[in-house]
Specification:
This protein has 7 helices and 17 strands. The chain has about 280 residues and is an alpha/beta fold.
Length: about 280
């Protein structure tokens, strides 16, 4: 099993690769090639070429939620590479998402493509509404996460617009990927807007298996030190072996994770290659 971070906010030292505020991961497992999120601009494609990854050979694309920094590169993937893929999206992926800047201003943060783009390009699309959807024997997409308010993220700036009105986004479209291994489940997350602990607890409850590793965005960027410490304590108690937190984890979150988890924390920047 191999997981490659094709793009995220920073680039590993010494690697001549693009970086941006976004996330895209490439996974090889069970003889399948999977893209988890597509970054903001499509520059993950250039990085894939530099890393000798052939995106033409993709089998599946999973977009974790409907924000531009996770789905923005998908259009370029289809228009330039045109892989024969099956696409997985959460229910409500195309809801109009906004970030509240101030009392009178909301900036659009949703997808740069719509359902018509998928139809026009004959993209086979599965909208995940199941709690657990097996793609292969060892690949499972999770949705409909159980929410413990104690571990919800601070999301007061993120809204949906419907019928001219704004309401807080509960991120019902968020999906995560679990990869089963002999040592436990490796969990890939996009931004963990529903709370990273809520995602991990849900996956543990549904599978009855321990969490071996966590890779992706944990959205600690707006959390205070007390909340971050609670989450770090959870990682310790659950004995998670690898924490490859990046993207929306934020500099403070990454620093605290690194200091307290030491060798368990992976500096998961653009170009990182993990093998299990």
């Amino acid at each position: 099993m191999k997981i490659v971070t094709l793009i995220e906010n920073d680039t590993q030292s010494g690697k001549d690769l693009y970086n941006e505020h976004g996330l895209s991961l490439f996974i090889q497992v069970d003889g399948k090639n999977i893209l988890f999120d597509s970054g903001q601009s499509g520059r993950f494609i250039d990085n894939a070429k530099a890393l000798n990854i052939d995106l033409k050979e993709l089998d599946y694309v999973i977009l974790s939620h409907g924000h531009y920094d996770h789905s923005g590169g998908f259009r370029r993937l289809i228009e330039e590479i045109n892989p024969n893929i099956k696409l997985f999206l959460g229910e409500g992926f195309f809801n109009a998402k906004y970030n509240r800047v101030d009392e009178n201003r909301y900036d659009y943060t949703g997808n740069p493509f719509d359902k018509e783009f998928l139809q026009n390009n004959n993209i086979e699309t599965k909208y995940v509404h199941e709690n657990m959807l097996h793609i292969t024997e060892n690949l499972v997409v999770f949705s409909n996460f159980n929410i413990n308010p104690e571990f919800e993220n601070t999301i007061e700036r993120m809204y949906l617009k419907k019928d001219g009105e704004y309401k807080k986004d509960q991120f019902l479209d968020e999906i995560s990927l679990g990869i089963k291994s002999d040592q436990g489940i490796i969990v890939l997350v996009g931004c963990s807007h529903v709370g990273v602990v809520n995602i991990l607890d849900t996956i543990k409850d549904r599978t009855g298996e321990n969490i071996h590793s966590l890779i992706g965005g944990t959205h600690l960027v707006r959390e205070d030190d007390e909340q971050i410490n609670k989450i770090i304590e959870y990682f310790k108690v659950e004995d998670i072996k690898n924490i490859g937190a990046c993207h929306c984890t934020g500099k403070q979150g990454e620093t605290m994770l690194s200091q307290q988890l030491e060798e368990i924390f992976i500096n998961n920047n653009t170009g990182q290659i993990l093998e299990f």
